Amino acid sequence: MKKQFKYIIVLSLLLISGVSCKKEYLTAVPLTSVSDATAFDTPERILGNIRSLYANTKGGAFYAGRYIVYGDIRGEDFLNETGNLVTGADVWALNPTGTSTNSVINLWSQAYYTINLCNIAIEGVTAKGPAVVGNTLTSNYLGEASFIRALCYYSLLQLYAKPYADGAGSKLGLPLRLTAIKGPGSSDLARSTVAQVYAQILTDLNFAEANLPASYVATAAAENTTRAHKNSAIALKTRVYLSMQDYANVITEGTKLAPQATAPFSATNGGVAHALQANIATVFTNYSTSESILSFPMSAASGDNPGTQNQLGFYFLRNATNPGSAEYSLNPLGIVGDLTNWPATDARRINLVFTNAGNGKRFVNKYQQPSPFLDWAPVMRYSEVLLNLAEALARRNGAGDATKATALLNAVRQRSDASVTLAPANQTALINAILLERRIEFLGEGLRNNDLMRLLQTIPAKGSVPAKAPSDQGYIWPISANEMSLNKLMTDN
Fold it and tell me: What is the pTM of this model?
């Protein structure tokens, strides 16, 4: 791994590559390097630091590419077509068991690199922000840095640590780095427990909700999709609490964004007015709709896209005109083969699944732009909030809970298939229907691994790959060899 990851010395790199989520949103900073002492001395430098947090989160090894791909291919709904280890064949086979495996090292390094950028930003903005940009922007920027740090830690937990359900968070989690590393001698840090890491994630998200803006100005409407705001923090909390099986708090947070008892559901809390789009295909062509709570945008500019063999469109063949590499097809024994629960009348099957007429293989068709595959990477959509809330209500199963849970479930289903009304007969059937709806709705968006992990479920068999139980090696990943060599207090999984 590159030397800069050894000590994560990042200040000059941060401001050299201080790109935003999209190039045209930048105010360019005419710098070649900036010292630690002056990195937060102007409004432009501070904003450049904040924008670089998003730019690094969407690195190809992390959230704009590999993390989403890995979240899907670990599950049972995809088959590997190439056997290429460079593009995750070992991840699909559930055996990246070596600490030096590329996937294990690269994702860990990029996530912790970004976490350190967050820590640098938090310290720098706290010290100089009030005098340079004023108290309001200082609070907003600290909220963004806290949000990104929370997203990074949550994402790492889903691959490198036991699920919260395994021992109520008592198992080993991650090194919880909350102060900036700016030089050598700061690498040694023992692993916190899973519960401790989740607690910090929620601390960051609660802070973010309190300090982020409710929305961004209308003239920069895309920023409501590409930068975190209050509803972004609330939405991510529903995902986090669901992973902790804390259903009461999922309901508390989810109700902020879907307070209605019946459809149509929408966010009416004074922030961004999130709502489902009438046609789900719109979400994957118009990236700035009110359904998209957070996405990472791409442009053809150097450094503003995931790069070769990292893009979502590269992995998931999209259509006959602009095919990707066809790395992963849809498993005919997976959800795409279930015509009973996912009928042919569903718009998601019609518009977002492509069938190769030559060999009959089917592929995700959500990422439709040709090479260099500049489709925006979805992080969270309003439909996820609705299904998170539906599942929590179904599991609580109090008075009226099943009624609203069913209404939320049908809001997502009937948006794509008005001919179907789901009416589960009991609590178990309702929960199962919601879990199945998640597999359909988020196919190719990286959430399947999260759902299997949070419920401590066996990863089902697929193709030549046997099932993987929670107690089996490979259910979670080993710790990066780089971390093990640099951190004398680190222990492996």
Answer: 0.93
Q: Is 464 helix (H, G, I), strand (E, B) or coil?
A: coil
CA angle 210, 215, 219 (to 5 degrees): 155
10-24, 225-239, 277-291: least confidently modelled range: 10-24
Q: Are 59 and 108 in contact (CB under 8 A)?
A: no
pLDDT of res. 319 = 65
The answer to whether residue 306 sits within a structural domain is yes
User: What is the separation of C-alpha 173 from the centre of its chain, rounded to a whole number of angstroms?
Assistant: 18
Burial letters 116-132, b for 16+ CB under 10 A, else e: bbbbbbbbbbeebbeeb
CB 117 within 8 A of CB 52: yes
Q: Which of 14, 84, 85, 76 is closest to 51 using CA atoms?
A: 14
**What length does the chain have?**
493
Q: What pLDDT score does 470 carry?
A: 97
Q: What is the CATH number of the domain that holds 61?
A: 1.25.40.390
> What phi, psi does 401 have (nearest 5°)?
-65, -45
Please say whether the beta carbons of 235 and 193 come within 8 A: no
Per the structure, the complete domain to which residue 426 belongs is given by 17-486
In a domain, 11, yes or no: no
Q: What is the pLDDT of residues 405-420, one digit of tens each?
A: 999 999 999 999 999 9
Specify if 53 maps to a domain: yes
**E strands in 350-421:** 353-355, 362-364, 377-381
Tens digit of pLDDT for each residue in 431-447? 999 999 999 999 999 99
Average pLDDT taken over every residue of the chain: 91
- Give the whole-angstrom CA distance, residue 101 versus residue 74: 16
**Beta carbons of 72 and 444 less than 8 angstroms apart:** yes
Query: What's residue 333's pLDDT?
Result: 97
